[in-house]
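Hey,
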Amino acid sequence: MLAACRDSVSPLRPSGTPRFAVAAGSGITLDQMVGELGESGHHIAKAFGPTNPHLGDAIVATFFWSGPNTITTVADHLCDTIPQPSGYPGTPVGNTYTLVESASAGSISMATYVATNVQNFPDPNPDQTTALCVHAIFAQPVVDGGLLLSAWSGVNAVTATALGAHGSASGSGSATPTVADPGTIAVGAGSLALGVSMSNALVGADPPGEFSILAVQSDQYFIDETNYLVASSAHTVDPKWGWYFTQPSTWLASALVLNPAQNHLAFSVQPQRTLPFETITPPVQVRVVDDQGTPIPSFTGPVTIAIGHNGGMLLPGTLSGTKTVTAVNGIATFADLSIDQPGNGYTLVVTAAGATSAESAPFNIGAF
C-alpha cells in the first residue's frame, strides 16, 4: 500500500480503527494527523494523507512496538517508487527528528520524536506519490508495531526553543483503575502539552484532567492513547491516565511540551530621509510576523515607536506625531512622524506586547 509506505515484506495485521479528535483554537493548532498499527519488519512507517502538513509545521512522531528492540533511525521521505541506496523506498526529505522521550517495560515500548520547521516536501502535495512519510528503522525486525504522526502549526521553529518540559514513566498494576503518571510538567501560555500512554491490556482509560483525547489506537497486542492540551495560561499539569486493568498489566506514559512561535515586529516600510519638522514619507509601516517571517494578520494590539539611535548633530532630536497606533490586520502604520533636529544615522525602534522589538535601518534628517 503506497500511502502507508509499509515494509514490502511485512504482513498486515488486524488493527483497531484510530479515533481522532481535532484540536481547535488560535496559536498552536493541529494541522494533520495519521496513525497505523499492525506493522512488522525493520521499517515501520506511515504517510500523511491525503494532504501533506504545511511547510514550517512541527511533526510529533510516536512509535509503538512489542518485544525487545531499539530504533536506530527516524527520518522522512516521499512516497514515490524511486529505488534508494538507503534501503527504504522514496526520495529522502531530510528533516531532523529529535528523540524527546522513550519508555519500555514488560513486552511493550514507545518512543516520541519531534521535528520542527519541517521543509523540503510539496505543500500541498499534488498526489500520493509526493506524500510525506515518516519512518523508523529498528535494530531487529518488529513483530508488531505502529506509530502516530501529528503535525502542528504555530510551533517555534527552533528545536531547542520549541521543546519545553518532558518526562516519562512505566509501571504495572491489576487494580481498577491503575494510575499511569509520567510526572508534572510546566506549560507556558499558548504552549502545547502532548501526552501518550500505552498498555498491553486491551482496556479503556480515563484521560488526564485538562487534556482532550487526540487519538486512540488498538490491535490484538496493545492499545495507545494520545491526549493534548493547548494552555491558556502558564501553570503546571500532571497528566495521569486511569487504566481499567482486569489482570496484571503493564503501562507506559510520557508527556512533552512544545512552545509557540514567537511573534516579531519587522519594518515593512523603512523611515526615509526628510527635512527637520517635516512628515516622514512614505509613512513608516511595521508588520507583525512569526519566526519564519510569515505575516500574522490576527495581531491587533498597540505598537509603539521611538527613537533608537539619536543622530542629532547639535541637539538630540525629538520624535513627534502619533507614536502608538493599533495594528490593523497585523500592520501598524505611523502616518505623521517627524523629527525636529538635523542629523545622520537616526534609527527608530518599535515595541509591542507579545512580540519582539525591531530597529529600523539608519536614516538622515536634513538636506543630505
